[in-house]
Amino acid sequence: MIDPVFLKRVVLNNYKSIKECSVTLGPLTFLLGQNGAGKSNFLDALRLVAESLNTSLEHALRERGGINEVRRRSAGHPTHFGIRLEWQLPDGTQGVYAFRVGALKKGAFEIQQEKCRVFQPGLVPENFYKVVDGQLRESSFDVGPPAASDRLYLVAASGLEPFRPLYDALSHMGFYNLNPDEIRELQPPDAGEVLKRDGSNLASVLSAMAKENREAYDRIVAFLSKVVPGIQYVAVKHVGKKETLEFRQVVGTTQAPWRFMAENMSDGTLRALGVLTALFQSSNGQRKKVPFVGIEEPEVAVHPGAAGVLRDGLRTASKITQIAVTSHSPDLLDDKDIRDDSILAVVNRNGETKIAPPDQAGRSAIKDRLYTVGELLRLNQLEPDEEEADKVLPSQLELFADYKPWRK
Known about the structure:
alpha+beta, 14 helices, 16 strands, 29% helix, globular
């Protein structure tokens, strides 16, 4: 079976409220904590990588209010932020990708350093490059594209065969905060390869899935029918040059299903459909596989009784796609089969976000099946192991440290 884990370890320095963190991720990771703890900041750092590769770093920073809104604010006045990703592709290729961005006067920025290594364990040669202050300092290739201090070099290096798979994987990561109002609107059709962050091309994605992978499409409808009783089918309806979704649902004692357009469906129904589509889109058979899916609070607007259905959907989808979810919903986590190693507890201490596995008491309670993770949340007893987090070696927080191949 193919390992669904794409991002093995994530290191962040001075990103928004996160001073530093070094965490490992599994097939399904729950980031749990109260509102304002900084859960979304962790996913946003990964989303910045994808957006910077799809558009530009300047655009990604501008969408967040500029670099001064991204780099951490503190008494120490850090003037930079950094991201390091240790990854593995389905074919066994491994490596590290890291960069550090520094602030300049008047809201400007520069990429101080960027490093990439790509290799197959046990095989040579290794492919790599290192860019410092806009200059290509080291590389495994003799002739390469020019570097610039305001653009990630991986965009240019994607024209070189060894780096293309990594570029495709990072740029096709999907991050979702679904907006029911956007899903209700008539949508312009597109290729339907990757679901947009707000769900504004949901009709196109479902249309492509129905044609290319009917099994995945039917799985989505089956899960949705458990969230919204009576749902039998979801079809794409063309209205002039645009499209929308048509739901077929049994109402009351009628045998024939009624038809409802997306504009008539509840927020919970539309969000649930969007979440399920985000999760299973990589089984679509399309060219642009989504190797990592991050979803913010998938349980929002969904009846608490349906949280278990979403949990089952997350678990099923994580067999083919790596998933990270932010939540503070006890209902979503009320399952003793959720293991402690799939949990990252998040708290904010005096404006600084701490991210770590649960403390020893929490881990023991989960392992011994004394409490579900949801019950610990209700009791406010799910805390990060801050002592262990403080023991993280400096080398584990270093953005450009030598990379040791990942071993299971």
